[in-house]
Amino acid sequence: MEDPATAKSRQPWCWIPTLYFSQGLPYVAAMMLSVIMYKNLGVSNTDIALYTSWLYLPWVIKPLWSPIVDLFRTKRFWIVGLQFVVGAAMAAVALTVPAPGFFKATLAMFWLLAFSSATHDIAADGFYLLALKSHQQAAFVGVRSTFFRLAMIAGQGGLVYLAGWLQETTGNVVHAWSIVFGVLAVLFVLVGIYHLFVLPKPASDHAVRDAKVTSGYFSAFGSFFRKKHIGVILGYLLLYRLAESQLLKLATPFMLDEREIGGLGLSTQQVGIFYGTIGVLALTIGGLIGGYVVSCYGLKRLLWPMIITMHVPNAVFILLALAQPENSYLIGSAVAVEQLGYGFGFTAYMMYMMLVSEGENSTAHYAICTGFMALGMMLPGMAAGWIQEQIGYVNFFWWIMLATIPSLVVTGMLKIDPAFGRKTKIET
After folding, report:
1. Tens digits of per-residue pLDDT, 175-197?
2. How many CB atoms lie within 10 A of CB 109?
3. Which of the listed residues 164, 300, 358, 420 has the most CB atoms within 10 Å of its CB?
């Protein structure tokens, strides 16, 4: 078997970009493309928010089955195999969109997609640590993040734009989305074939048969819930994005809905440009700025500026709902401001999870934190569509501003070392 110490891991540039690009696309498909597709196909906001929020569940419970990836076969096997499964799930979405019972059928395929994607995340992140030496791991952190973000732009921007263009040229919404997911299916089959030959085969990548390793992993769960101030920790993890979890579910439906019912009446192509491209770029820039300033001044000093910067820009959606502007530059600027603030403020959340995870069992504890992060997105998002349909878009966005209050309350309870975060390179 090939050892990275002697074989140089087959040049990381050959597989890290494609690995993390393929990690990002299924997540985007499950969380964003599904929302826009269902909106285009006439599904209500209540059903969209409720059922697509359930797709977060695999990421909520991901820490519980991560040992399974260690127990059976290699991480390389899991990566390649799951990429073929993802491709099959996307092909199934493409084939079932035209079916009479498309909502239930495609939702089942999105469930398969989500579970496969979450498991792929476990295998990919573990493989990254096995296939690279420590200095390479540090060097390619930024590359991982960059190509994951590029996947978001390609999915939320490029594929949404493609769906909109196909809708205009063919006049058939169903056909347009069937083609989009067909393209994704072919892409993932090709990626799976590529990784079958390109991924290195580190000697350390093998099934773990030591029962102590597995039992130790689960014992880490107990130590997490014995942490000091665990109530505050869980409150922060669940409530920090209470407002954003609801806003993210309804942002694109608001843009797509007709002006007569309070929306902006944008085309699918425009949503791909504004939210999927400009928005993601602003989100990325905000995260980069946030990481830099925290490394300079520490998390404690930046905590309140970050949470305010994250929440206050949500008010742009109130203005958009009231004014319903048609000017593209104004809408694009509003989205950019909101996403820039979100990216900047979200850095505080990521840094706090790192703080909570410090010490023994840091990997397992961080995985648990990400599970609660996903739960904090899932539960509020489920009700967002129903709330909006009951009170309308203007009042819904006012509700979003009220929903920021619990986040402010739990933030005021945090105990943070003033030195934490200074001169620390973080992945944004």
Report:
1. 999 999 999 999 999 999 999 99
2. 22
3. 164
CATH class of 228-411: mainly alpha
**Which alpha helices (H) appear in 265-361, and where do they start and end?**
268-273, 279-297, 299-311, 316-323, 328-357
* 3-state per-residue secondary structure call for 44-102: CHHHHHHHHHHHHHHHHCHHHHHHHHHHCCCHHHHHHHHHHHHHHHHHHHHHHCCCCCH
pLDDT tens, residue by residue, 187-241:
999 999 999 998 888 887 777 766 566 666 677 778 888 888 899 999 999 999 9
pLDDT digits (tens, 9 = 90+) for 124-158: 888 877 777 766 666 676 677 788 888 888 888 89
| pLDDT tens track for 361-395 | 777 788 888 889 999 999 999 999 999 999 999 99
Per the CB < 8 A criterion, the answer to whether 59 and 23 are in contact is: no
Q: Which CATH architecture has domain 13-213?
A: Up-down Bundle (1.20)
In terms of phi and psi (left: phi > 0; alpha: psi -120 to 50; beta: otherwise), the region of 229 is left
DSSP assignment of 215-252 equals HHHHHHHHHHHTSTTHHHHHHHHHHTTHHHHHHHHHHH
pTM above 0.85, yes or no: yes
Domains 13-213 and 228-411 share a fold: yes
Identify which of 49, 62, 25, 341 has the alpha carbon closest to the alpha carbon of residue 187: 25
Query: Rounded to the nearest 10 degrees, how much is the dihedral formed by the CA atoms of 263, 268, 271, 273?
Result: -150
Q: Which of 242, 293, 181 is nearest to 400 (CA)?
A: 242
DSSP letters for 121-185: HHHHHHHHHHHS-HHHHHHTHHHHHHHHHHHHIIIIIIIHHHHHHHHHHHS-HHHHHHHHHHHHH
Distance CA 265, CA 120 (A): 37
Q: What is the domain partition of the chain in residue ranges?
A: 13-213, 228-411
Element housing 383 (H / E):
helix 362-402
How far apart are alpha carbons 175 and 180 in whole angstroms? 9
Residues 6+ apart with CB under 8 A from 296: 422, 423
Residue bearing tokens 């929020």: 53
Write down the pLDDT at residue 2.
47
Q: Provide the angle, in degrees to the nearest 10, between the axes of the packed helices 328-357 and 299-311.
A: 150
